[in-house]
UniProtKB/TrEMBL annotation:
InterPro entries in the cross-refs: NAD(P)-bd_dom_sf (IPR036291), SDR_enzymes (IPR052184), SDR_fam (IPR002347)
Species this protein is from: Mycena alexandri
Top-level division of the source organism's lineage: Eukaryota
Name of protein: NAD(P)-binding protein
One annotated GO molecular function: oxidoreductase activity, acting on the CH-OH group of donors, NAD or NADP as acceptor
Pfam families in UniProt: adh_short
PANTHER family membership: SHORT CHAIN DEHYDROGENASE, SHORT-CHAIN DEHYDROGENASE/REDUCTASE SDR
SUPFAM superfamilies (alphabetical): NAD(P)-binding Rossmann-fold domains
Lineage: Eukaryota, Fungi, Dikarya, Basidiomycota, Agaricomycotina
Residue stretches in coiled coil: none
Length: 221
């Protein structure tokens, strides 16, 4: 990134989120903040240059508390998410409700809580890690791969959340995009078996895309 940037990754304890933190920590002129539900030894190698906050995206209070420690922010990356094989016709409404709470209401809570910090800078980028599982076209393909069911419902709603945020914030110079990270070899990605790309590969591609984002790309997938 060209001038000093403050970047926050929500959901950085493992998988793609930790990959994003690793890549950001090696990016010059970047202040890096990550959030986890509970600190683990997996973060020890990052050292003190990366600030780690505790945040559960399903808990409004923990989000408000974390946001109160960050007065300024250039880029908010919401990576936290849950996903397993939970077909909608055999899952209870409570299961679907949990997906919506973590994958849709969580990002909504986070976006609202960090808006003042984003408004305090000019960059004003919000990136939500979505999935091609959100796509009606992709899901309609025979033999389509990837997590579907309740996960797909929640990611489709997440895309619409991003679109509505784009519409409401574009006149303030915000760039809001949902991003599909590809198939990544993480706890979630490995539920399909082996073959996903390493988290570092996806993280590098996402950060390259994020670095080049302008308000013109806001509202696109
Ligand atoms: N892997 C893929 O192939 C793939 C494909 C498309 C999209 N995605 C998306 O990419 C993102 C990252 O996925 P991943 O593959 O890295 O999954 P993962 O290995 O399962 O990691 C999920 C991350 O989300 C965090 N998280 C879960 N619930 C949370 C909550 N309530 N509050 C805060 N953090 C929470 C986890 O923290 P804990 O350690 O505390 O549980 C963990 O850091 C997700 O949004 C996922 O939907 C992944």
């Amino acid at each position: 990134m060209s001038s000093e940037q403050i970047v926050l990754v929500i959901g950085a304890s493992r998988g793609l989120g930790l990959g994003l933190l690793d890549e950001l920590a090696a990016t010059p002129n970047t202040q890096v903040i990550g959030t986890v539900r509970a600190p683990t030894a997996a973060l020890d190698h990052l050292g003190s240059s990366v600030k780690i906050l505790t945040l559960d995206i399903s808990d409004e209070e923990s989000i408000t508390e974390a946001a109160s420690t960050i007065p300024e922010l250039d880029t908010l990356i919401i990576n936290a998410g849950m996903g397993k094989r939970d077909p909608v016709t055999t899952s209870t409404t409570d299961v679907l409700s949990t997906y919506l709470d973590v994958n849709v209401l969580g990002p909504h809570r986070a976006i609202r809580a960090f808006l003042p910090a984003l408004r305090a800078r000019k960059t004003r980028r919000i990136v939500v890690i979505s999935s091609s599982s959100a796509s009606l076209g992709q899901q309609a393909l025979p033999g389509s791969k990837g997590l579907a069911g309740s996960y797909g419902v929640s990611k489709a709603a997440l895309n619409m959340l991003a679109m509505q945020c784009h519409k409401e914030l574009k006149d303030e110079g915000f760039t809001v995009v949902p991003v599909h990270p590809g198939w990544v070899a993480t706890d979630m990605g490995n539920t399909h078996g082996p073959g996903g790309m390493p988290p570092a590969t996806s993280a590098k591609a996402i950060l390259k895309l994020v670095d080049g984002l302008t308000p013109k790309e806001s509202g696109t997938f």
